[in-house]
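Technical note accompanying the year-one report. For the benefit of new consortium partners, we illustrate the data format agreed upon in the data management plan: each record pairs a sequence with a structure-token string. No post-processing was applied to the example shown here.
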Amino acid sequence: MSVYLKLIWAYLKIGLFGFGGGYAMLALIEREVVTPGWISEQMFTDIVAISQMTPGPIGINSATYIGYVVTGSVFGSIVATLTVMLPSFLLVLYASHFIHRHKDSVAIKGIFAGLRPVVIGLIASAALLLMNRENFPDNSISIIICVASFCLVYFTKIHPIFIICLAGVAGLILY
């Protein structure tokens, strides 16, 4: 099977079952691209970091980059990006029409009530996935930066972009 067909199959699965956005999709993305050996765990961590810093959804940004790495071509980037977007686009197009027609339905309200906890669980899974040796080396400085960043964002009104810049400066100084 060609690498393009494997890429399309992998990103169709990610696009179809990646409920909750990019962070919720991270575990599935990792399974589809790291497990078969397309990229290393270290490269995956780097791709996640870069995808977070660039404009746009993390799932699409990572698909673009991974498509390029796996195939070595811009066409691979385009294929992975369009493939990961296509299921969501089609589902949202159909679902918006359907939900609008049945917005007062008890069944629809129940479905959404059931999906909310799943999305939170998937995002928590992504957080745990990123707590690895590449992000938290053997020293405690990384853990202190992580906890301090969380506390500053959660308990104060400091803008997250400022926290990111502050963490970058701390990393530059401390490492």
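Partners are asked to follow this layout when depositing records. Residues 37 and 93 are 34 Å apart (CA to CA).
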